[in-house]
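From the methods appendix. Each design record in this collection lists the tokenized structure first, followed by the designed amino acid sequence. Records were kept in a plain field format so they could be parsed without special tools. The example shown here is representative of the layout used throughout.

RECORD:
FOLD TOKENS (199 positions):
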């Protein structure tokens, strides 16, 4: 059985219209290409970083520096303003965000800063921050005031300026978590009162 193409009036006009439209588009295509080649491309304010007025505010790949005591197999982490201020940023900021994937004592000695510090311990699953597969021991205060706190859930800690804190030890890590800190200071090193525990 063969399929015969319908030849009624409606199909006839559809075929003619489609053919005319195709010929018309083919006729103007060279003109469109020529215009595109000679006219500048509009980028809708897309700029290369650091090559524009606001480019200095984009800090690309802000990787942290290795510190004594960091595990040799530690993955790359975020570290902003650790030793020197971020060039071009007017507000002082130092921040770290690093994955914790095995148990170890990160900071063995207590220390203090001349500004407040915010520490955060976050579950490693970005779709479920409530899952926290680790146990962390963190000390705040000194002498008779010293308190040892055990962290077993996603937690943020505010450490007031000049308050002694640490040691900081990740006692158990069943699943990776994220740890970091924020300080509104030009650099981490500039805030340490006395001996820098990370040197």
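DESIGN:
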């Amino acid at each position: 059985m063969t399929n015969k193409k319908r030849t009624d009036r409606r199909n006839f006009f559809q075929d003619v219209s489609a053919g005319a439209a195709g010929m018309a588009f083919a006729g103007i295509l060279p003109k469109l290409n020529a215009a595109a080649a000679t006219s500048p491309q509009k980028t809708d304010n897309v700029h290369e970083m650091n090559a524009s007025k606001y480019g200095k505010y984009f800090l690309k790949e802000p990787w942290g520096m290795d510190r004594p005591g960091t595990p040799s197999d530690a993955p790359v982490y975020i570290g902003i303003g650790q030793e020197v201020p971020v060039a071009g940023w007017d507000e002082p900021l130092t921040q770290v965000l690093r994955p914790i994937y095995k148990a170890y004592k990160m900071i063995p000695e207590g220390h203090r800063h001349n500004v407040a510090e915010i520490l955060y311990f976050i579950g490693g699953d970005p779709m479920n921050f409530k899952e926290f597969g680790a146990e962390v021991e963190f000390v705040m205060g000194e002498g008779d005031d010293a308190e040892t706190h055990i962290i077993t859930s996603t937690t943020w800690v505010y450490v007031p300026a000049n308050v002694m804190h640490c040691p900081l030890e990740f006692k158990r890590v069943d699943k990776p978590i994220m740890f970091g800190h924020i300080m509104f200071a030009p650099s981490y090193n500039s805030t340490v009162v006395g001996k820098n525990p990370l040197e």
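APPENDIX NOTE: The longest strand covers residues 165-173.
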